[in-house]
Write a structure and sequence with these properties.
This protein is of the alpha/beta class and about 260 residues long. It contains nine helices and ten strands. The protein has helices at about 55-65, 85-100, 110-120, 125-130, 180-185, 200-210, 215-225, 230-240, 245-255; strands spanning about 10-15, 30-35, 40-45, 75-80, 100-105, 145, 150, 160, 170, 175-180. A six-stranded mixed β-sheet has the order 4-3-2-1-5-10. A two-stranded antiparallel ribbon has the order 6-9. A hairpin with a 5-residue loop joins strand 7 (about 150) and strand 8. The longest helix is centred in the middle third of the chain and has 15 residues, at about 85-100. It is globular.
């Protein structure tokens, strides 16, 4: 029952599932970070092409869908970035200002590799993004280290390690430490064995809080009743038809983990 005094922000990205590409190479289209009454979402400009008055519309949707999870003094920063790399940079810069002890990500090995790839593709140095701005340039550094994903038994048999038992690290001199919320959840409950129903965020939220991720059932029922929530088809439908609601979904994935 003990809860540490460490402060925790939560980060989540959403990637482009409409543009054809190799599996695992989907580019980020938005990045959200929440930290108590502080929130930021950065959306890539091209994703919003043809839309007007984005900020006011998004704030209105947040009021509609997130009212029960929004303290009165909440500050929401809405950032429209030119590129995925710039979007990531802007959010991490805000994290440096807020200075949480941890930045938690549910299934970190999905988000951080895609974030890093986007920065590298645009020639943005990882060390300049992830190192605290106070760190002198010559000694800035950043490196993502993927943990073991398989183990070898005494008989030589190789078996995979469940993603919640893996441990990936992001080495960077910052006020915060990146941590996988799913792995932490598993490790502090390891004596109870594997979680019935698995470690999807949806299942864990339902078990602990009696809530689930935003699904926008009303939109599906009216326009696409054949699409099941949380499937690839659902993400494609939302990214094509309800871009700003999709941004609210991104924010709630962070808020719910908090």
């Amino acid at each position: 029952d003990y809860i540490t005094s460490n402060t925790v922000a939560v980060l989540d990205i959403e990637t482009d599932v409409l543009t054809p590409c190799k599996s695992g190479e989907e580019k980020p289209i938005m990045v959200a970070l929440t930290f108590g009454n502080k929130r930021i979402i950065s959306i890539v400009k091209s994703f919003l092409e043809g839309m007007s008055d984005v900020e006011n519309k998004l704030r209105s949707l947040c009021d509609k869908y997130l009212a029960n999870y929004t303290p009165a003094d909440t500050e929401l920063i809405i950032d429209i970035a030119e590129t995925p790399g710039q979007s990531i940079k802007n959010v991490i810069q805000q994290a440096h200002k807020w200075m949480p002890d941890f930045i938690a990500i549910w299934n970190i090995n999905f988000d951080l590799p895609k974030m890093n790839a986007a920065l590298i593709d645009e020639g943005i140095r990882l060390e300049d993004v992830y190192s605290d701005p106070s760190i002198p340039v010559p000694i800035r550094h950043a490196k993502y280290i993927i943990g073991s994903h398989q183990k070898k038994k005494s008989n030589g048999q190789i078996t995979p390690i469940h993603w919640t038992e893996q441990w990936h690290t992001m080495e960077c001199p910052a006020s915060f430490y990146f941590i996988d919320a799913g792995c932490v959840y598993r490790r502090i409950r390891v004596a109870k064995g594997m979680e019935p129903g698995g470690y999807s965020l949806d299942n864990i939220l339902n078990k602990n809080l009696g809530i689930r991720k935003l699904k926008f059932d009303d939109l599906l029922e009216a326009e696409a009743p054949h699409i099941r929530p949380s499937t690839l088809a659902w993400h494609q439908f939302m990214q094509k038809n309800y871009k700003l609601e999709y941004a609210v979904y991104n924010l709630f994935d962070c808020i719910s983990v908090e």
